[in-house]
Amino acid sequence: MRWFRADLHIHSVLSPCASLAMSPRRIVAEARRAGLDLIAVCDHNAGENGRYVRRLAGGTPAVLMGMEIQTEEEVELLAYFADEESCILLQEELYQYLPDIPCRPDLFGDQLVVNAEDEIVRQVPHLLLAPVALPLAEVVRRVELVGGLAIPAHVDRVPGGLLAVLGLFPEGEWPWAVEIAPWTSLAAAWAAWPALRGRPIFRASDAHIPEEIGRAWTELLLAEPSLAELRAAVRGEEGRAVRPGPEAKEDG
Ligand SMILES: [Zn+2]
Ligand SMILES: [Zn+2]
Q: Which residues, by Cβ under 5 Å, contact ligand 1, an ion?
């Protein structure tokens, strides 16, 4: 086993709020610049640019398929998948639960599927940056049904953070690991939210522009950079471990 430096929350040009510069090619280049071993592309309620990033990277860095899903409660949940098929399967399901709002690029920004050659494949017509009409528990269930791993995104942050929005972890079975905002120190997170103590804590860039890639990261002690190993690290199995990197400087 060895430590892998992971940034598991990066947006691409498929997110209307992300820079047009976030093409698969640029994401791979910036991830290499930042010395990342493992990344995940997590666009809002969509996952299809991840496959082009993955093909381009050719393992350097390793790329997990992912999404950042916005639930009915307006809680944001990161979801990671073992393969492209399960990610796209869930994406197609979620598309049916998004409100029928056309994405006007002049208002919301572009939502582009861009391939490994930097060519625009298509523009997603319906607005992706909106809550799906499914409650949090149901989204978690559907992620797990296709073999994915759910990790609530920046739990301490408004908007979208589970703890910031709901005030506490809901009753019942619940994803164990959480992500905190890039600029929140561990001490501050534990002080504000004692329920975080003892849980595996991730930190990631939530990059929307190229320069943000790798501004925050998580060190993972794994046998290999795969979803199965990530899951084992969250469970602390056989010496695998999750260690958040230092907080990033807060941006403007
Ligand atoms: Zn965004
Ligand atoms: Zn995000």
A: 15, 17
